[in-house]
Specification:
The chain has helices spanning 43-53, 93-101, 110-121, 167-170, 172-178, 182-200, 237-250, and strands at residues 5-11, 15-22, 27-28, 33-36, 65-69, 73-74, 77-78, 105-109, 130-136, 140-146, 149-151, 160-161, 164-165, 204-208, 228-230. It is an alpha/beta fold. The strands form four sheets. Strands 1, 2, 3, 4, 5 and 8 form a six-stranded mixed beta sheet that branches. It has a five-stranded mixed beta sheet with strand order 11-10-9-14-15, with helices on one face.
């Protein structure tokens, strides 16, 4: 049981959340703790917020941590910065958070780690073929899996649709900002999903983000070839997925989703 408890951290543009996750069940082992993301969300300010979160005794007991971060992450280093300060670009996020947590910390793209949770425990559990996870929120995050193996850092929200980034047309925030009806929003989302389907031909599409709590209002209006389902892990996906990502990077037995090369997990 102790080896199954991993600290998961979900870093977003508005909030930073953490909890211990029990990877034997895919459930949180503690209450989810949350603090507002500092503004500006510089590396130093975010690291200090993580330190403040971990003062909570309930979050102690893990020996490794994982974090989901809104950026392209290569070998622990941020190559982009979405909804956080541009000073993150080029920052070794893994090293910075390891210092803040006091333990080995592994960092992945936020949509990728949320997708890991859905593939291991949620709406994509055991689904073979190509599974596409999309998080619809302020922007559009994406995670692609083939036979349970993740292709990281896909950033499909930045595909061009109607002459602009797709997330500027079809993100959930657009519906709120433009006060679109569900019918009009579904039409925009349908156009985006058609673009993605023509490129990837997924076997299953999982839609996450806050909007996934109301699938009956827009999913029946979509005309995709692949089945579309709502994500089932809810607000826990980012934390549980980050913990799972840490476990597989650290080599904990039973949590290898990606193929092992020469006994080591390949670096992302």
């Amino acid at each position: 049981m102790a080896d199954d408890l991993v600290l998961g951290i979900d870093i977003g543009g508005s909030g930073i959340k953490a909890a211990l996750a029990d990877l034997s069940t895919g459930q949180l082992a503690t209450a989810r703790k949350r603090l507002k993301t500092p503004q500006p969300a510089t590396p130093e300010a975010v690291a200090q917020t993580v330190r403040e979160l971990l003062r909570d005794e309930e979050l102690r007991g893990a020996h490794i941590a994982g974090a989901g971060f809104p950026a392209v992450i290569k070998s622990g280093v941020a190559r982009t910065a979405a909804n956080v300060d541009k000073k993150w670009i080029g920052t070794n996020v893994a090293a910075l958070l390891a210092e803040a947590t006091g333990m080995p910390t592994y960092v992945g793209n936020d949509a990728d780690v949320a997708g890991l949770a859905e593939i291991r425990y949620g709406a994509g559990k055991d689904v073979q073929g190509v599974v596409l996870m999309l998080t619809l929120g302020t922007g559009i995050g994406s995670a692609i899996f083939h036979d349970l193996i993740l292709l990281p850092n896909t950033e499909l929200g930045h595909l061009e649709l109607d002459g602009k980034d797709a997330e500027r047309t079809a993100a959930a925030s657009v519906k709120d900002r433009k006060k679109l009806s569900w019918k009009k929003y579904a039409k925009r989302l349908d156009a985006y999903l058609d673009l993605v389907e023509r490129a990837l031909w997924p076997d299953l599409i999982i839609l996450g983000g806050g909007i996934s709590k109301e699938p009956d209002k827009f999913v029946p209006r979509l005309h995709t070839r692949a089945p579309v389902v709502a994500a089932s892990m809810g607000n826990n996906a980012g934390i549980v997925g980050a913990a799972l990502y840490a476990a597989e990077c650290d080599g904990l037995k039973g949590y290898q989703i990606r193929p092992v090369a020469n006994g080591k997990i390949p670096a992302w």
